[in-house]
């Protein structure tokens, strides 16, 4: 700090205490060489300033003050010098001071950010710099921030990394369901969006376990902190008759945060997606699955607003209470009542070994009824020395689906009308606990979790006459009940030795699945195995050693060597002769190398090898009808062995100063399998089998993205590209066929605000995919598709926002109507507490949409019935 | 102490009508002259400052620079302080870079990087430089576009505010500050200063406390400054932005600045065609209340 000398010499006569002065101090302030110093001399009594003065060009000062005690404190200050404090008697006297140079360092502070600022690993986006009149909630603004991407599902990623935590004022209110925040918190209430890079949320693990995770924190404006907010919406429209309603109450205080919401509509606004976790944090993974389903029209890949026919009600409440500064208790409950109707046509071109395709067309109408209740409660204590977390989750669903399909095929003479009905309830409960205790050189870590998953399904298909082997006319029924009891535990310690951390863990986990199935309506003579009733279990007991070199300034390297004893067993209640046990030893090493280029970038290389042996695919001898077109059976009594090399490389660059963010990631996955899954075609029905054929597959994928905030028109440019190549084999009519599938796509988004009265966004995405075998390498078709969308916002007067959007969807795989144009218009008139919104959707009244996709070698064309042109009027209000 | 309480009560009484008052905005017809900014490459560095304090001037939202009238900067060096517009300096710095990168261009973007509320508009608190050396204060008053060549300056004895220091404290920009009040040139002020930066200075023409004024506002809320950044380093101090300033007096400069805000067209003798009506306009009044009322 340079020495600063000010000569405010004659300014100094003024002093607050002058009018009351009864005592005068005077003297001289110099350095050790007797040079005068222009210091400030302040007289204090307790903390009260009684008088002050300044030393002049010769270092002389005079301070007058009124005495209220026997003594006073005289403080002499000057930047670049150590301050002097001297207690003296409160009487007129001469006091000279000699100051020592150095010591005084001015703290540099900045409280206001530019559009983007970076401090350490934290990047802050100022919301006001990206917000336009058209942006209502904070999610609308985040989409325009360079470096941040929001997927169709609402998942947020920063510079190619998926966000792991989402905080509001540094509190984890929503635990992954952050769509509730991005869809409901007003953009006007948020001061900045902060991105914590390389964020280790567990304080006890900081400086121990390097993290590449990204956390987002919403920094609220002071007006939104500690204030109750109630936002509401009510609306109606036509055609068909539509309604929508919302009421959202929010409070964000220092000790308590809450968001409680009711939402409902039949206008196809997707209000259930925000209740889904975007991170799956804290959720237990059960390995059982419920395979039965109703065949429904394929998703067209458009916004649900275009085609969904719904009647939805949701109620949710999310609360977090800060018990003390580092402990929180959170409680969340959500209920969904949803009816979804779908209608469309699906044409499947099934690839045959000779290079030809056979064709099946289905006209399908479905209706899905969902009632889902979820609840969770989490306690966290997060101090530097102790981390303790317990999370209890309960999920119950009473879901059912009905469907009717009219099926025709190139190999059938007549059409078939089939009715499907599925009862699909489920119940899950789980509890997970984690305790971490840190001392100077060691960490002790304990994880424990247990849970139960119960899924009893029943699928009824009629008429039974569509099946050649059915022994009745009316219907066939498949019942499938699966229960999975899972428990897991892990404990160990981390030891630090310089820049090295040595980890030692022991772990154990167990899954016990009970399966009972029954296929009713088929002749036992034709299908002898119509039932399953067995328990399959698997467990691991092992130890993991890891050594890490951690230099947070540059390089981190971690080598992990988990060794596990794996046991699997089968207990078949229908045939005890099939009971068996299997025992294995598994080693799954992995190496991770990370390198940081200062604040501007980092890269990571991950190398891993897995060898998995699984007998779950051989334990069910009975056939299962998974839908009316598909049956599953296992013919191979052999342990499935999968070996996998998985290698990834990623590089991330960020420079907040020039608003430039870029990332590249490459991955290569090579797998060997000793069995193959294949499909036999028997008329309409496809039978899924596992065959004893060894095979190998390679998957390459490359992703790249660049985000740039441009220096004009408040604009942001986002460009991304994906390429993937898969070479493998596919079983077609029990014969392995080599095939290659490749896909590439690119996308571009340009958001601009060229003038106060308008803003806009141009989005464009293009993709190509192609799959071919050695047989049809030259003849296989290439699917090309693109979507272009232009959003224009006008603000002709301060209160009015006009939004006009035009969208074109193109595919080359239809003979006619390759371009599908959509248009939407929205008018918003803003009053003090109320906003009126008038929406005109599907202006061009497009009624059908065609989508073409590849899956392996099969080509799927789906035609979806869309919502017709409609108008909706909404009134939004906000109370605080 | 009694005097502090009395002054505070008087300030509170003065604050009573504040709910109907609003911060002075930059909505008048006066705009600043941009074309001559091409000469910013020839800016003269007259000195170097060691400390720079940034202030939000008349901010509606301290976190949103778009609501600020200006970001003021107080540069503190040996024997002097200089208060100027940081927004304007950033614009000139950016323009210098642009001009150096496009040496052959015949056009240039003179105000592209100007930030804040209504960045094209002129107000004297953004376009005047306040320089204090010894006990002399000089205001270099740069005039708006219509009279861009009629810039004025005056020098006066450093005006002193008679402060009453209170025991109340608050943190401003990370520094613990004490409250002080004064009446000066027709307005009552409440200031927050920090003894942690022992320099008797502050934004605009304010100073004279035993520490830097970090926040100050008049009782009606019409004029406010709040510190948003404290930096140390070596900051160039530039000469006033125009080559020509005529000597004047404080009263004449104040009168002209007030008239320019109140009725820009009439004061400058300018006639414009109003876009919405298509009619000529040579007089249009705007509400305006000046900082120095006496």
What is the structure about, briefly put?
Chain A is mainly β. Chain A has three helices and 49 strands. Chain A starts with 22 loop residues before the first strand and ends with a strand.
Q: What is the helix tally of chain B?
A: 5
Distance between the termini of chain B: 28 Å
The helical percent of chain B reads 10-25%
How many DSSP-defined strands of chain B? 14
Net shape of chain A = globular
Roughly how many Å apart are the termini of chain A?
A: 48 Å
Oligomer: heterodimer
Radius of gyration of chain A, in Å, reads 34 Å
How do the helices and strands follow one another from N- to C-terminus of chain B? HEEEHHEEEEEEEEEHHEE
Portion in beta strands of chain B: 25-35%
Low-pLDDT stretches of chain B: 12-20
How is the secondary structure organized here?
The complex is a heterodimer of chains A (880) and B (294).
Chain A lengths: L22 E8 L9 E6 L2 E7 L5 E6 L5 E7 L6 E6 L3 E2 L2 E2 L10 E2 L5 E4 L2 E5 L11 H5 L5 E3 L5 E3 L2 E8 L10 H6 L5 E7 L17 E7 L7 E11 L3 E11 L3 E10 L38 H4 L1 E16 L2 E25 L5 E26 L3 E24 L6 E23 L3 E21 L13 E22 L2 E21 L10 E20 L4 E18 L7 E8 L2 E8 L3 E14 L9 E4 L2 E3 L7 E16 L4 E14 L2 E7 L2 E7 L3 E15 L6 E17 L2 E21 L2 E16 L8 E13 L5 E12 L7 E12 L3 E8 L6 E8 L2 E8 L4 E10 L1
Parallel strand pairs in A: 1-7, 1-8, 14-16, 34-38, 37-40
Antiparallel strand pairs in A: 1-4, 2-3, 2-5, 5-6, 10-11, 11-15, 12-13, 13-14, 15-16, 17-18, 17-49, 18-19, 19-20, 20-21, 21-22, 21-48, 22-23, 23-24, 24-25, 25-26, 26-27, 27-28, 28-29, 29-30, 29-31, 31-32, 32-35, 33-34, 35-36, 36-39, 37-38, 39-40, 40-41, 41-42, 42-43, 43-44, 44-45, 45-46, 46-49, 47-48
Chain B lengths: L1 H14 L29 E13 L12 E8 L2 E6 H16 L22 H4 E6 L2 E6 L10 E6 L6 E9 L2 E10 L2 E8 L17 E7 L5 E15 L7 E2 L2 H13 L1 H5 L3 E2 L6 E2 L13
Parallel strand pairs in B: 6-12
Antiparallel strand pairs in B: 1-2, 1-11, 2-3, 3-4, 4-5, 5-6, 7-8, 8-9, 9-10, 10-11, 13-14
């Amino acid at each position: 700090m340079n020495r600063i000398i000010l000569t405010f010499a004659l300014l100094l006569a003024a002093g607050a205490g002058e009018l009351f002065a009864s005592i005068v101090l005077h003297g001289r302030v110099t350095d050790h060489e007797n040079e005068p110093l222009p210091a400030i001399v302040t007289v204090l009594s307790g903390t009260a300033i009684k008088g002050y003065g300044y030393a002049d060009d010769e270092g002389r000062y005079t301070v007058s003050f009124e005495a209220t005690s026997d003594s006073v404190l005289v403080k002499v200050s000057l930047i670049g010098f150590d301050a002097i404090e001297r207690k003296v008697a409160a009487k007129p006297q001469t006091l000279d001071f000699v100051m020592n140079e150095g010591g005084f360092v001015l703290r540099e502070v900045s409280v206001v950010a530019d559009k983007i600022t970076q401090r350490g690993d934290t990047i802050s986006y100022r919301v006001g710099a990206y917000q336009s009149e058209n942006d209502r909630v904070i999610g609308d603004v985040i989409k325009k921030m360079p470096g941040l991407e929001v997927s169709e599902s609402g998942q947020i990623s920063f510079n190619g990394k998926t966000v792991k935590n989402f905080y509001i004022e540094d509190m984890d209110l929503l635990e992954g369901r952050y769509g509730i925040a991005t869809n409901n918190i007003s953009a006007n209430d948020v001061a900045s969006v902060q991105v914590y890079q390389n964020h280790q949320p567990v304080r006890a693990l900081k400086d121990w376990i390097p993290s590449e995770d990204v956390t987002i924190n919403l920094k609220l404006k002071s007006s939104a902190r500690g204030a109750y907010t109630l936002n509401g919406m009510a609306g109606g429209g036509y055609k068909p008759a539509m309604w929508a309603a919302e009421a959202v109450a929010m409070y964000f205080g220092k000790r308590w945060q809450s968001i409680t919401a009711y939402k409902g509509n039949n206008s196809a606004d997707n209000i259930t997606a925000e209740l889904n976790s975007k991170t799956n944090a804290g959720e237990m993974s059960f390995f059982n699955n419920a395979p039965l389903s109703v065949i429904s029209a394929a998703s067209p890949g458009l916004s649900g607003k275009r085609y969904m026919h719904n009647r939805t009600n949701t109620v949710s409440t999310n609360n977090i209470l800060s018990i003390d500064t580092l402990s929180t208790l959170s409680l969340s409950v959500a209920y969904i009542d949803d009816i979804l109707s779908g209608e469309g046509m699906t044409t499947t071109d099934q690839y045959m070994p000779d290079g030809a395709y056979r064709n099946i067309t289905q006209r399908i109408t479905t209706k899905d009824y969902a009632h889902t209740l979820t609840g969770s409660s989490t306690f966290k204590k997060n101090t530097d020395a102790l981390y303790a977390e317990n999370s209890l989750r309960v999920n119950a669903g009473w879901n059912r689906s009905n469907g009717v399909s009219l099926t025709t095929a190139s190999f059938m003479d007549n059409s078939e009308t089939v009715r499907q009905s599925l009862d699909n309830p489920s119940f899950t409960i789980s509890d997970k606990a984690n305790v971490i205790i840190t001392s100077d050189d060691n960490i002790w870590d304990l994880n424990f979790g247990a849970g139960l998953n119960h899924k009893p399904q029943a699928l009824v298909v009629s008429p039974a006459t569509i099946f050649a082997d059915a022994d009745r006319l009316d219907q066939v029924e498949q019942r499938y009940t699966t229960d999975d009891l899972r428990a897991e535990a892990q404990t160990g310690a981390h030891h630090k030795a310089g820049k090295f951390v040595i980890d030692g863990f022991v772990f154990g986990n167990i899954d016990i699945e009970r399966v009972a199935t029954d296929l009713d309506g088929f002749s036992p003579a034709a299908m002898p195995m119509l039932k399953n009733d067995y328990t399959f279990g698997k467990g691991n007991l092992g130890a993991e050693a890891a050594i890490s070199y951690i230099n947070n300034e540059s390089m981190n390297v971690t080598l992990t060597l988990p060794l596990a004893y794996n046991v699997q067993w089968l207990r078949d209640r229908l045939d005890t002769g099939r009971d068996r046990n299997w025992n294995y030893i598994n080693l799954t090493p992995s190496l991770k190398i990370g390198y940081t280029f200062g604040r501007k970038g980092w890269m990571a290389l991950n190398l891993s090898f897995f060898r998995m042996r699984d007998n779950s695919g051989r334990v069910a001898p009975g056939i299962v009808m998974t839908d009316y077109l598909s049956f599953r059976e296992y013919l191979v009594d052999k342990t499935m062995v999968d070996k996998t090399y998985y290698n990834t490389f990623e590089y991330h660059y960020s420079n907040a100063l020039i608003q430039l963010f870029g990332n590249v990631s490459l991955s290569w996955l090579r797998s060997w399998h000793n069995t193959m899954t294949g499909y036999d075609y028997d008329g309409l029905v496809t039978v899924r089998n596992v065959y004893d054929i060894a095979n190998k597959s390679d998957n390459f994928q490359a992703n790249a993205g660049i985000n740039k905030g441009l220096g004009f028109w408040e604009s942001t440019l986002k460009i991304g590209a994906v390429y993937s190549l898969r070479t493998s084999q596919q079983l077609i009519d029990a014969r392995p066929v080599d095939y290659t599938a490749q896909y590439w796509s690119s996308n571009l988004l340009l958001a601009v605000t060229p003038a106060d009265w308008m803003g806009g966004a141009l989005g464009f995405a293009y993709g190509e995919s192609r799959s071919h075998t050695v047989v049809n390498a030259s003849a296989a078709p290439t699917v090309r598709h693109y979507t272009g969308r232009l959003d224009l916002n006008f603000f002709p007067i301060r209160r009015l926002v006009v939004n006009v959007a035009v969208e074109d969807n193109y595919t080359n795989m239809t003979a006619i109507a390759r371009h599908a144009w959509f248009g939407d218009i929205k008018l918003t008139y803003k009053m003090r507490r109320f906003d009126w919104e008038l929406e005109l959707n599907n202006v061009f009244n497009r009624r059908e949409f065609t989508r073409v996709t590849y899956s392996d070698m099969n080509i799927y064309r789906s035609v979806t019935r869309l919502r017709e042109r409609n108008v909706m009027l909404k009134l939004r209000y906000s109370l605080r | 102490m009694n005097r502090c309480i009395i002054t505070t009560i008087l300030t509170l009484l003065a604050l009573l009508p504040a709910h109907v008052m609003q911060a002075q905005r930059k909505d008048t017809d006066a705009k600043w002259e941009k074309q001559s900014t091409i000469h910013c490459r020839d800016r003269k560095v007259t000195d170097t400052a060691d400390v720079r304090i940034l202030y939000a001037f008349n901010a509606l939202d301290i976190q949103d620079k778009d609501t600020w009238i200006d970001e003021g900067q107080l540069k503190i060096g040996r024997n002097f302080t200089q208060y100027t517009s940081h927004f304007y300096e950033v614009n000139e710095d950016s323009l210098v870079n642009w001009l150096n990168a496009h040496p052959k261009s015949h056009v240039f973007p003179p105000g592209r990087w100007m930030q804040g509320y209504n960045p094209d508009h002129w107000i004297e608190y953004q376009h005047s430089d306040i320089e204090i050396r010894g006990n002399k204060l000089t205001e270099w008053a740069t005039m708006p576009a219509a009279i861009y060549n009629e810039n004025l300056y005056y020098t006066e004895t450093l005006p002193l505010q008679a402060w009453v220091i209170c025991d109340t404290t608050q943190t401003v920009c990370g520094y613990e500050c004490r409250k002080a009040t004064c009446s000066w040139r027709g307005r009552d002020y409440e200031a927050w200063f920090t003894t942690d930066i022992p320099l008797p200075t502050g934004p605009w023409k304010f100073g004279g406390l035993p520490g830097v004024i970090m926040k100050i506002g008049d009782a009606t809320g019409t004029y406010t400054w709040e510190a948003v950044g404290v930096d140390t380093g070596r900051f160039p101090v530039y000469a006033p932005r125009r080559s020509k300033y005529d000597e004047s007096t404080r009263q004449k400069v104040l009168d002209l600045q007030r008239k320019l805000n109140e009725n820009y067209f009439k004061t400058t003798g300018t006639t414009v065609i109003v876009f919405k009506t298509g009619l000529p306009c040579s007089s249009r009044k705007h509400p305006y209340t000046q900082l120095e009322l006496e």
